[in-house]
Write the structure tokens for this entry.
Amino acid sequence: MQAIHLAVGKRFLCLAAGSVLGLALSGCGGSSSSLSTSSQTIGGLQTISTLSSTVDTANGDNNPYALAIAPPKSTAFPGDGVSGHIQPGDIIAGNFSSSAGVQGGGTTYEDVTTGKPVNVFTEPAGTAGGPTFFAFNTANGFLWTANAGLLTSASPGNVQIVSPSGSLVNTLNNSAVWYGWGQAYNNAFGGKNAFFSVNLYTGSIVRINIVPSGTGVSFTYDTLASGLPATLSGFGGTGVGPAGMVDTASDTLYFVDSDNNTIYSIANATSVAAASGTANLKVVYSDPNGTYLNQPVGLALNPINGDLITCNQKNNNLVEINPSTGKIVAVKTVDSTPVQSNGGGSALFGVAATVDASGNLKVYFTNDNTNTVNVLSK
């Protein structure tokens, strides 16, 4: 497959604020004198264990990418206790590849909470496939999926919405959300509901606005940033570019860019006006030499301190960053397999974080080398 590059200029360097594409720089790659060993950060977590295989027991789908933790129990999302239905707090993984190893050919979502994969949804034939990122609507437990498809014009991906009982609620086929490589929910900040997605083909960050109507809801699409470097067939034969994202309580959207080892933010992401190019972006941390960020892809929020946790594809490290200071907080290697230049040995993609009953940080991550979801804990 021929790689498609949509670069807007040179990669970001650690220069004076505003000197690169007019973006404000907050943090830059380099040495960090005091990495944390606190158990409230990944630096203080010492135990890595396997939670579950993700291999679908019916069709053999594997290669887990998407990973998310279902929201807690609520009036709108009480849980029904039925096996194969998503329950509050469940850990859900998505298989990117088919049993034949076709990347983007996977269609299955697995509940791995109990230590074994339980299928909760299989995408219907002909609806793209290739789940890369999940985001839950925290109000009702509906699961939104960014599908990359086969990263080709014949199967360009989409966004699918699935109910906790495993029913397909809607499929968004708008070209704005093709080649999905990131997904986040805004938690109804400002009284509005919106999701965010990545279009890898155009290197765009897209807001999906949920518009209530008399017969249900409709959707509109705003491009918040565009023209970021994007490659449909890069390292390991899959996409490289803007990827994992989270929206925070301040309605600041953060996302990683695996092409230039950068974390960006968009302020007031739910309400900010659509804009082409990079006008809405601020650089939170940039690491052009790959010292700490080395093709980051997934992104999660540390629920204890608000730090960002990402995972590197090129060295199998988790990295924690303080988004306010732009400083590296901690680094943790979670798979010792050497990563080869062709992508062999690269284990990480999805990451999610939570707090256990004792108030300790727990970080879940997908491992493509073993087709498992693993957990890093105290």
Q: What stands out?
A: The domain at 42-74+85-377 is CATH 2.120.10.30 (Neuraminidase). The radius of gyration is 19 Å. The chain has one domain: 42-74+85-377.
